[in-house]
Amino acid sequence: MDSAEGYVTDVSYIAGFYPNMAPLAMRYVAALNKVTPPQVGKGFRYLELGCGLGRSLTTLAAANPHGDFVGVDVNPLHTAAIEKDVAAGKLKNVRVVNADFAHVPRDIGKFDFITIHGVLSWVTANVREQVLQVAKKHIAPGGLLLVSYNAMPGWAHLQPIRAILRQYAQLRQGASPQRLREALAYLVFIRDKQAKYFEDNPRAAAYVDSLLQQDVNYLVHEYLHEDWKCFYVAEVAEMMSASANLGFVGSLPVFTNFWDLCVRPEFHELFRTTSNRLVTESHKDFCANTAFRWDIYGNNPKPMVTLAERLKEVDDFHYRVARKGITLPYQANLGVVTSTVQGALYQALLGVLGDRSMRLSEIIASDEMKGTPAEEVMRAVDAGVAMAMFDVTSGPVATATAVPAKVQVSNAFNRALMATESLGGRAVSLASEATGTGHALSDFDAAILHELVERGRDGLADRVETRLSGSGRSLLQNGQPVVDAAARKEIVAKAVDAFLTTTLPLLGQLGIVTQA
Ligand SMILES: C[S@@+](CC[C@H](N)C(=O)[O-])C[C@H]1O[C@@H](n2cnc3c(N)ncnc32)[C@H](O)[C@@H]1O
Asked: Which end of the chain is more exposed for a tag (fewer CB within 10 A), N or C?
């Protein structure tokens, strides 16, 4: 019989799209780390274990119609919700399996990509072993696996918070959300009365405030399971190797693969003398106090050491300037370290990639890169991606084109999302077949887009305002609700204007919006 073994099932998780889960992101990290990623041009297979409400799974399926997607989850509320999204989005490439990890049907086959997000730290050791056995059995040769988890030492001072929440909630009666609320109230009480733990750990005291801002369903899933464990990177690497025969490849976000972007200069000498990647990762986590990791593992992947090999294996990636208005010197604040980029090579790259997306081979061959060694160009492009100066996409992205007067959203999945999630209080990520991933819009911009494609531009701001008033979602300015009717009207009109001039052209480039 299927069992969630200590995992909360009386309340659904929250739906969220995570770009790190895209095959695009996983493949790029592999390429950066000199590992050959799976080819995707002729199709690929993708499995998410513990897919929750499946928003990453379905968004990626919509963005990659040539891929074949399977999601497994034990909670029937979750799998039923995904089936509904699959039907509403007319997705033909998603299979949803309601099963626990010990009972995954054998016939699902092998996968080029397997993702396990939000599972490892929150299940029992037994379930961890089960999920890794599924991964071992179903990962294709050369396949990549993404795993996320709460990491040490970033969680060290916060672990007692989880213990207090869980212990208190266990003493209460009722459904999980109610017990969680009561436990949270208790936490606030002892924090405000300056219990010594909070006095000695001021960051834990501040953390309680951030919990109060979170969705209660998220908090139930984060804190109330029977098991909850934070891992050092080396522990997970050992588990992956011993249980699933997988080796460490790299991590996300992209900048975490560059230790010099993660640790302050005074530590650089230490890192320069370490050639063991896992030792580097462990030091890095201490220097950066890492609290959450997204790691990529590979099933005996083929090395891809030279530039020639990279151009042969993965020249399908396209690069472009991430957003308008990037100038040098460019500063990227990546948590612990602020890095600065300047110099002629980056100036030239900003010029080359400002108007159109290009493959690495095209960038290297461009007139502007003449005289610069190709390896240097590659390193600069990769560092630029790490620092969010450049974007990577799975295919070409259109140049800035004029937005047509009448627009449509052609993808049924995106249309269904806009209809159900606009003004829902959370970002709405729309799928782009051009980039192979999802792109977040605010729930307010999603409502503007929905009104625009449904009923055109005439009276757009008024219709958005009417819809906002009827939705129960408050309009905030500087954190305060705006109640004055004239002020509301003005704010909405400005937001609609900004959407039409800035966001809509971007959606056009991504192919999310097309001419009607
Ligand atoms: C925190 S959620 C993460 C959901 C999803 N990966 C996401 O990114 O939104 C973890 C999911 O794992 C599922 N899960 C927990 N234990 C499981 C088990 N033993 N077998 C199958 N699914 C399980 C839960 O039902 C839940 O949906």
From this structure: N
| Residues of the domain holding 186 | 159-223
The CA 166 to ligand 1 mean position distance, Å, reads 19
Q: How far is the CA of 101 from the centre of ligand 1 (A)?
A: 10
Q: What is the domain count for the chain?
A: 4
73 and 59, same domain (yes or no):
yes
Same domain, 24 and 66: yes
Cα separation, 208 vs 203, in Å, equals 9
Token code pair at residue 11? 């309340």
Distance from residue 177's CA to the centre of ligand 1 (Å): 17
Is the C-beta atom of 341 inside 6 A of ligand 1? Answer: no
Spatial distance between the Cα atoms of 260 and 192, rounded to a whole number of angstroms = 39
Residue 2 clears pLDDT 70, i.e. is over it = no
Question: What pLDDT is attached to residue 251?
Answer: 98
Q: Which residues contact 85 (CB under 8 A, 6 or more apart)?
A: 54, 55, 58, 91, 413, 416
The pTM assigned to this predicted structure is 0.95
Q: Poorest-confidence range of 7-11, 144-148, 359-363? A: 7-11
State how far Cα 174 lies from the chain centre.
33
By most ligand atoms within 8 Å of CB, the mutation choice from 2, 8, 13, 292 for ligand 1 is 13
Shared domain for 254 and 344, answered yes or no, is no
Same domain, 140 and 235: yes
